[in-house]
Specification:
heterodimer, A: 492 residues, mainly alpha, 0% strand, B: 146 residues, two-stranded antiparallel ribbon, 5 helices, 2 strands, extended
Chain lengths: 492, 146
């Protein structure tokens, strides 16, 4: 099940919210005779039930694997506490990491490694074609963060299995992130309250996220397909169509693709944060207007923050590589960042490409970077980011080569073709508005309105509510058509 | 509680109520009106039917996925909603169809060069040798009126 779906919004989510708040209504009728603890247990039960149903809906066969993984890591947490500071704790953490990384390796990377071994050694080992369980990269990382934090004594071990299951399985962030740390929701799992403000802001946040996905991301993806071509399901490449593309089609195609990935990913994260907020959880932001970054280091502090901070905290500072750890850790972080996004060489190249720029910026130094005019640094960042998303888009390395040829006019094609012009003009307002709203316009307005006089604040509040309802209706209508609704996260 | 907090509280209640009414209305309308079924004339394809249950379909995920797809595909007044969706998408840009429809890449208005077989190569027809397009000569009496 995906968030941008009529069934999810109007049946699953509505049903879950309705059942979640029923205990509150019953408690009001009973003059608040139900204790807060009992009330929270019922609500957690509703969330667990819907979360397991949500996962089982998309992956009926893998739900048992998912539940086994949660039980294994729950026991690992208890064992770490029991054998604290002893060999038993060390064996447990190693066993847990081997299990989690092993599971990720088997389900996500087996095909990739077999394919490369066959190509390298000329063997013909058959690919078992294991289907990737949805969201495995997200929930595995969440589980690992919990176990490692338990070992490092950053969080207390969760003794209640249902509470740990709630943390791992919570459907808002289960299949598309953000990667929520246990420490972020540790307190709220056991003690939280959904205020009116939480529900109101959560609904608005969800609808804004939904609009980002349905209006912008889906619309931009159609433009990308028109400009760059459609992936062949059989060959997993664009083939000859890309070779005939003009410079303009290639460049605008990757610009729109970068915007598409931003709106899709940040839309999903926004929906997750919004749904979490409705239920009283406060997840951290995952995207902070990354396209305004002045350098690539800053870009990664604004883009998929939960993944970047995961690698920073659990991989970059692992005392594993001795004196040379800084450079090797840096290489490892960017290699893993790329490889996490998909089992394909282009993702590894993508990660190392960004890593190279981060490394170069470290060598130049912050002081020197600050001396460069902001316009220049912004342009530099945008260019690096856009080309980076070209690497992200072209999974087939031959296509990637053609992409670079197209960009430097090495293919002899025209600068622009009539059909490219037509495609862009047919979507010019969508692209322009998407580009404008990728800047921090809304937070700026919000900040200005915070201290505005009463009447202005009233008008702004009413406008927010009206806009939310209109956006929800527009999304519902566009989803009824549902011709283009790609789900980016099947490969994660 | 100061005035601003009071206002925020009322505003939050109104915002939640309006959104809830919107969702409940949609649910009610989709329950009251009959679901679309049969053939979609605008999309030129049959609409999805409710998936048939089988253990294998349940375990490979196609049954549950089929329910969600069926729900979207058979939403009441689908054709009208598609029309509204097309109008919304029309606002995405400037419609350049009429300017560019004859200039699409790949469309050629002359016969392609190269080794292309001529479908008329083996076609022959007996013609009057007096009619020649080269020197424009016509049979006697051609222009005479009866």
């Amino acid at each position: 099940m995906v968030f941008s779906d009529l069934f999810f919004i109007f049946v699953f989510l509505s049903g879950c919210i309705f059942l979640y708040f029923i205990p509150d209504a019953v408690n009001c009728i009973l003059s608040r005779k139900i204790s807060n603890n009992a009330l929270l247990n019922i609500k957690n039960g509703v969330l667990i039930l819907f979360s397991v149903l949500f996962y089982a809906w998309g992956e009926p066969a893998y739900i048992f694997l998912f539940l086994f993984s949660t039980v294994f890591n729950y026991i690992a947490g208890l064992a770490i506490e029991k054998y604290r500071n002893g060999t038993g704790a060390r064996i447990t953490i190693v066993a847990s990491l081997v299990f989690n990384i092993g599971m990720l390796f088997v389900f996500k990377y087996t095909g990739f490694f077999i394919e490369n071994i066959n190509a390298l050694l000329g063997t013909s080992i058959p690919d078992p074609e294991i289907r990737l369980p949805i969201g495995i990269s997200f929930f595995t990382f969440q589980i690992m963060s919990y176990v490692i934090d338990c070992y490092w004594e950053k969080v207390e071990v969760q003794r209640s299995y249902p509470k740990l299951l709630l943390y791992i399985s919570m459907f808002p962030q289960l299949v598309a992130g953000p990667i929520v740390r246990y420490s972020t929701v540790e307190r709220e799992i056991s003690d939280r309250k959904s205020t009116l403000q939480d529900v109101s802001e959560g609904v608005t946040r969800f609808v804004v996220g939904l609009s980002k996905k349905v209006i912008f991301a889906n619309g931009l993806y159609s433009v990308v397909e028109n400009l760059l071509g459609v992936y062949s399901a059989e060959t997993q490449s664009l083939g000859d169509t890309l070779a005939g593309k003009s410079f303009f089609a290639t460049f605008m195609g990757v610009v729109c693709f970068a915007l598409y990935v931003y709106y899709d990913f940040s839309g999903y994260s926004g929906m997750a944060i919004g749904i979490g907020r409705i239920f009283g959880f406060h997840f951290d932001e995952n995207f902070k207007h990354p396209f305004i970054s002045k350098n690539i280091t800053e870009f990664w502090q604004r883009w998929h923050i939960s993944l970047g901070s995961f690698f920073r905290d659990y991989l970059l500072y692992v005392p594993l590589f001795g004196k040379r750890r800084k450079y090797f850790s840096l290489f490892l972080v960017w290699f893993c960042t790329g490889f996490w996004h998909g089992a394909s060489w282009n993702f590894i190249i993508w990660g190392l490409y960004f890593g190279a720029f981060v490394f170069a910026e470290q060598l130049i130094g912050k002081k020197r970077m600050k001396k460069i005019p902001p316009v220049v640094t912004n342009m530099y960042s945008l260019l690096v980011i856009i080309i980076g998303f070209g690497i992200f888009f072209f999974e087939d390395l031959t296509d990637l080569g053609i992409f670079f040829k197209n960009l430097v006019f090495a293919n002899g094609n025209a600068f622009i073709a009539a059909s490219d012009k037509s495609t862009v003009m047919n979507n010019i307002f969508l692209i322009a508005v998407a580009a404008v709203f990728s800047m921090p316009i809304l937070p700026w307005f919000k900040k200005k309105l915070k201290d505005a006089p009463g009447i202005v604040a009233t008008v702004a509040s009413v406008a927010t509510t009206v806009s939310t309802v209109i956006l929800l209706l527009i999304c519902a209508v566009l989803l009824a058509e549902n011709t283009t609704n790609p789900f980016l996260y099947f490969r994660f | 509680m100061d005035n601003r907090s009071k206002f925020l509280r009322i505003f939050n209640i109104v915002a939640i109520a309006v959104t809830a009414v919107c969702i409940i209305s949609f649910l009610s309308l989709t329950s009251v009106f009959p679901r679309s079924e049969g053939y979609s004339t605008s999309e030129k394809r049959p609409l999805l039917t409710f998936p048939t249950y089988s253990n294998s379909a349940l375990f490979d995920g196609s049954y549950t996925a089929g329910i969600a797809e069926w729900y979207t595909d058979t939403v009441p007044h689908r054709e009208e909603l598609l029309g509204i969706a097309a109008s919304i998408k029309g606002l995405y840009g400037v419609d350049t169809y009429f300017q560019s429809s004859n200039l699409q890449d790949g469309i050629q208005d002359s016969r392609p060069d190269g080794d292309v077989s001529d479908p008329l190569a083996d076609y022959s027809e007996e013609v009057d040798p007096d009619i020649s397009y080269g020197d424009i000569s016509y049979p006697d009496g051609f222009f005479e009126l009866d």
